[in-house]
Amino acid sequence: MIWVEPFQQALKTEYTGRGPVGVMATVSEQSEPAARSVICRRIGQDGRLSFTADLRSEKIDHLRHQPSVEVVFWLSALRRQYRVSGDVRIITGGAAVGEWSALPPDTRRTFFGPPPGEAFSPADLIPDLDLTQPPPTFCVLEMLPDRVELLDLTTTPHTRQVWSRDSDWQPRRINP
Amino acid sequence: MIWVEPFQQALKTEYTGRGPVGVMATVSEQSEPAARSVICRRIGQDGRLSFTADLRSEKIDHLRHQPSVEVVFWLSALRRQYRVSGDVRIITGGAAVGEWSALPPDTRRTFFGPPPGEAFSPADLIPDLDLTQPPPTFCVLEMLPDRVELLDLTTTPHTRQVWSRDSDWQPRRINP
Question: A53, A138, A163, B172: which has the fewest C-beta neighbours closer than 10 Å?
């Protein structure tokens, strides 16, 4: 797909040595917007984006109700914005272990805390915590893009381009 | 309100000499999520956030259907995230002129282009464009926060704090 390689390259240039940080927007059961920063863990050759999550977190409730998300990457150094939208599949159990193994130990540790978003309770001190296996609440969110939009602020006027599955990924320009 | 001043200070520290960039999440009429980067133009003493927009843009359709938004500020240098949510009021006409006057000329110029999001058409060359007055499609989005959440990644474990209008802005900690 024509947009994938330039997108990967842009993220690599912007986030040298760090995971790309996007903002994932979801819709609650009450049809209210919600958004939070997420680290993109992987980009497949077909443009599939992978994120890690806790099954007990609020966004999982949203995704079970409305699997569609939009993820925004604002690349401040490159002065470009990517908006990527599509449906998310929630992957648990053995199928999620590969992504778990790729996480740094400090990140793995965060998945053993108390339920996210609930009233604060101190984390239990687990002696000899086994970080080789994820807890059952670990999951991977795999988003298959249906639409990708690039806004380039380095040109005057700004350039805005869209690729969509519906249009067989043929690029088309829209007004900025 | 207890959260406003530290929030302003954090944005100022992170975005020295630049407008703070957040991501605003809205919900479409089809109950689908959408999100895009926005520059926060002003923060009132009561925490009100102001943004500028084009009445012809997609997010205005969303806001007329669902006025609630969530705006996320990921402050990468400070390793802190603010999520601010509430309802947006769309301000047009004379009441929007003050914000117009505060915009740099290059930004004002972008509001005279063809309808955003539509199939690309070259911008008309308007000789002697009068930038002192906004076009009728210029508007200000004023968001009155109902809930503010701070995630601080500089501590181990991470610290997550919520303030809400419902709870008279008393801070409470929730699990990260």
Answer: B172
The shortest CB-CB distance from A118 to any of B21, B116, B174 is to: B174
Segment B44-58, tens digit of pLDDT: 999 999 999 999 999
Is the CB of B172 inside 8 Å of chain A's CB atoms? yes
Which residue is closest to A173 within chain B, CA to CA?
B120
pLDDT digits (tens, 9 = 90+) for A6-60: 999 999 999 998 999 999 999 999 999 999 999 999 999 999 999 999 999 999 9
Cβ separation of B37 and A117 shorter than 8 Å? Answer: no
Residues on chain A touching B115 (C-beta within 8 angstroms): 175
A57 shares contact with chain B (CB less than 8 Å): no
- Burial class from Cβ neighbours inside 10 Å (0-12, 13-18, 19+) for residue B126 reads exposed
Residue burial B68-103, b: 16+ Cβ < 10 Å; e: rest: bbbbbbbbeebebbbbbbbebeebeeeebeebbeeb
Distances (CA, A) of A133 to A91, A96, A125: 15, 10, 17
SS3 B164: strand
- Chain A residue numbers with beta carbons less than 8 Å from the beta carbon of B160 are 116, 120
Cβ(A20)–Cβ(A82) below 8 Å: no
CA dihedral of B60, B64, B68, B74, whole degrees rounded to 10 = 0
